[in-house]
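tool_call: predict_structure(chain=1)
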Amino acid sequence: MLGFSLHAADVAAILAADDARIAAMKAPDMGKLSAIFSDDLHYAHSNGVVDTKSSFVDILVSGRTRYLEYDHVERKTSFPTPGVALVSGRARIQAASEKGVMDSVLSYLAVWRLEDGKWRFLAWQSCKLPPANP
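tool_result:
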């Protein structure tokens, strides 16, 4: 049982913020990314590399990594405490870098924090899932 009131508007706001994050990652713009990402961003990639807000925005805006596709397989929200939201699930992601194009299915946890009345993307942790057996 949650210790506070949760409204459909809270869920809608988080899903809208998450959709805006994905759109900004697919079409990187420094201003949009900076507005969505918390200054305290901790982005742990599925390969173990960890980025800060500054380093991740730089990677995206420079084009060193390009997110081509991002499709939710599953996405759930929860609010463990006021001002904090968790988004978890699985996603099919296609990204390109100097190493080539990578197609992955990831299990992930995203953490959002309410900062000055706006939901900001605080943390990400993901792991690659093995391919499904035919």
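agent: The chain has three helices and six strands. Proceeding to next step.
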